[in-house]
What does this fold into?
Amino acid sequence: MAIGILRRWAASAPVPVFIARGGGAGWRPVELAADPRVRLVPSPRHASVLLAAGRFPGPMGEALDRVHDQLPAPRAAVWWTADADAGRPAALQGASVVPGPDPVDRIVAAHRATVLGDAPSSPDVGADVPPNEFVGLGDNGHGGEGMMGGVPYGRPMAMTADDRDGLALDRLSVTLGPFLPGFTNGLQATVALQGGIVQELSLDVLDLGEGRSLDDLAGEAPTPWRTRLRWLSEALRVGGLDALAVRTARAARQGDEATSTVALVRRSGLLRSWSGIGALDGLDAASRLAGALDPSGPAPGGQADVPLDRLAASLVGSDWADVVVAICSFGFVAGENAHPRAVHR
Amino acid sequence: MIIVEIGGGVGGESPGRAQVLSLLASLLAVFGTTLVATFTVVAWPRRGAAPTWAFRAPTLGGGCAETHAWSRFHARYYPMTLVFIAFEMEMMFMYPWAVVYVREGLTALVDMGVFLGLLSLGILYAWREGALRWQ
It folds into this structure.
């Protein structure tokens, strides 16, 4: 009985949603933060519902499959798309499709159904096997050359390399994105980290396919100011100012001037914390943010070719938080559906 | 009719109060054990499935890891820790010295002065060698 009551309370609480933005989604899903029935979370581990917004062809679909499996059970998936006829990724085989402008009703219904047990939890896409083979010299995958042999839990240990202080630290190679807070659609970062400092960085854009955008579902193109506010809401979330992000999302949805919100953002200290990060062509992240806050500043999506190769080169030696801020600050000028043409570093 | 004596006699508490306390402790133990057993019996069939390999993959926003996440970070506070321990032992010697200082007078002052002087040479050496520089 007590557990039944707890389940009903859990079902009626704001739904923690992780948004994966695909092709054609742009920054539009960020406006969902304005609805009190949902709560946008930065990690799939905190989410109950996966909202897949847009198109997910090829590698984007594979990345979505990985993120889907990382949501804790019971979980549900909802696909918000203007191209329901396009290829459906494996993670969304059992997902309900939202062809309309607002997915919140469907999200809440899916959450309630899974928590109350009316619908089964979305099953894993990936197989229940270790990612790499457990192979070493011994029977349990252990052993090898020296102290670094073997592949514990199926992945090789990070080998050492020299770092900036003349020490030899382990060098982690990892691929991050495309579904990270602040990342533009399809952006993936391949990074080599030593103790939190980036030693190598390569920024790629995955194929987003061709088709309609989510704004087409609403029947009208968003105003430039509304686009600014959407991106600003995401940037505020990256900066840790969640309440201000919700307020900005509300202003974007209502289409108002939001002068008081913009004034709060200017006073919040975000500009100061972003200064000096991601400097490129005379502008740093704070300058780009200031440009976005100014109605007479650069237009959203005004720069189709973001120099990702030069940006990656400039970010080597900084820590990962600065890299995320720098990438997020370019999200405004890169526009909603721009495909930044990049040369791999 | 049960009469419980309240108030202690010479040399300790009354037997009645001790009995009440032990009875309460027993009831509490039984209640606690029953509560734990009930929750276990009710919740055990409802536990979730063991996490799969797909769930246990590191959360990278859709990316994948090529190496294991176990890695070493440089303990940049290590030289400072060694210096601290060395001079902490110096302070340990000063505590008993402070107790007898007034009684021993000038002798104690000179002895401790020599001791501190020698250790100050150690500080100067460490300073010259860069042990006090934060990495």
